[in-house]
Amino acid sequence: MTSPTPLQAGATVADLGEFGLIAELVQRFEQGPAVYVGPGDDAAVLRAPKGHVVVSTDLLVENRHFRRDWATATDVGHRAAAQNISDVNAMGGRATALTVGLALPADLPAQWAVDLAEGIAAEAALVGASVIGGDITRGSEIVVAITVLGECEVAPVLRSGARAGDVLAIAGRQGWAAAGLAVLGRGFRSPRAVVVAHQRPEPPYDAGPAAAKAGATAMIDVSDGLVADLGHLAAGSGVAIDVRSDAFTLDDPLVAVGAALGVEPLQFVLGGGEDHPLVATFPAGTELPEPFRPIGSVTAGEGVTVDGEIYEGDPGWTHF
Amino acid sequence: MTSPTPLQAGATVADLGEFGLIAELVQRFEQGPAVYVGPGDDAAVLRAPKGHVVVSTDLLVENRHFRRDWATATDVGHRAAAQNISDVNAMGGRATALTVGLALPADLPAQWAVDLAEGIAAEAALVGASVIGGDITRGSEIVVAITVLGECEVAPVLRSGARAGDVLAIAGRQGWAAAGLAVLGRGFRSPRAVVVAHQRPEPPYDAGPAAAKAGATAMIDVSDGLVADLGHLAAGSGVAIDVRSDAFTLDDPLVAVGAALGVEPLQFVLGGGEDHPLVATFPAGTELPEPFRPIGSVTAGEGVTVDGEIYEGDPGWTHF
């Protein structure tokens, strides 16, 4: 990859034009060995050695999923890519390629789009995935539409396979992004650790394939909220799930934010989304793969309980 | 597939909510045999027997790519799917699956979204492709972000393989959608044939794989404009292309619209996009596969000429 040229200071998206902007972004997208045809043709072509292709699409809309005064464009790029790659992770797969569709206001600084692209490419590079194509058009607000492709070494892990008697386990941080969002929402920028957790989640990308190989029966990533997403898993599997609240260490930043905002810190853990940890169920007796740790159990029935009780807090985010 | 239930009259997107709307749309997406996991999990999983996956993403934004008073939601769905599937066609591939990302205003009638989904699904069904996933979120304007996946039986046909001496050929209608857009732009609804051509393009979906098998050296679909898109092919291949204007029959509706609007009808053919015909180059002497017909030639040099002259008209659409 050639070293990208700096943009003319103050140039807008309209100044560069569609093809000028595409050229700027494409030189920032390194193409890995799985790419047969990268950006620039009618379509991209990916080498797919496995018999299954995993696909997921997610949209981020400005002022709904991100605010330009709360996160840099690079942060938004990292987060947009992370939430998509996490969906492949939650199937037990590995992401191989992304496409990026952008609707951009004409007066948006072109540097913002370039920084966004660099964030997407950097996050994709964490798992060895390439940005292989996309589309740019004018819109009245910023929309980032990412589609991720991936592959599975073993059969994909669905939401529907949990069985009574299984152990419920989690891999990755939970509650930090929600605490960060709460802090930003009150006009603060600290504790910095939770703000950064909101701006750039760090999903446990190796945990998905590890869970699949270890025989996970069901899996989902926590994007909307722990209780909300476990609700999807319970419904998909036709089981009941109980979460033990004492399985969660309430990390110092969560306690600090809770104290400052007058919020029970466990609410960040149970209701928070956007950290993108994985929650998976395993047959009893399974040696849990790193970094999974047990947080509850699966029983016959339906719905999600916390310590045997219906959870009364906010279960998570809804889009309308 | 169960028969979809009718919506409550007057319900908005916000009335149904994210999951309610998703449930309405998903029951309209029939899943073909290539789908291993359809909508409803973290990601979809597609069976991919071939070693290559073709991928393309396109966005449509309200009032930029479509107007709700010029086209029904079903039309918009057909067109959004068609322009994506056409990109796979232009690689010589066949579309197998689509994902659909939607940003929708909360007060949008839910019926509009349902009709859009039915249009997308119906167009996809023309090539045997399934809608296997997507995302819905709130936005201040409608954005339809489609990603299409496909497969190639033979090596994909790129934009870069045209050689001096090749024959230039086209498959499909050209200029009709542009004439339709011109008519709509002046507030008219007829001739109906060109208005419908704009609302629902009919790309020649069998022509792409046929061209690939016949040994096409380069191929592109006309989405921005004939001269503009041939310019991409010429630049990609490092050749010059000459189009013979007398190779085009000026169909009656184009002549009628030209006369009514005071426009030379050949301009619709040379500058118009969105009909999504394929233009391809073949080695001299190749028996052109149906429905390709010769329209010009490839020579050493660069750029696109019409009857040996630089084209002075509008070459096509730009996005900023």
From TrEMBL, chains A, B:
Substrate binds at H65, E274, W317. It comes from the Bacteria. Residues 40-151 form the PurM-like N-terminal domain. SUPFAM superfamilies: PurM C-terminal domain-like (SSF56042), PurM N-terminal domain-like (SSF55326). Its EC number is 2.7.4.16. Pfam families: AIRS. This is Thiamine-monophosphate kinase. The lineage of its organism: Bacteria, Bacillati, Actinomycetota, Actinomycetes, Propionibacteriales.
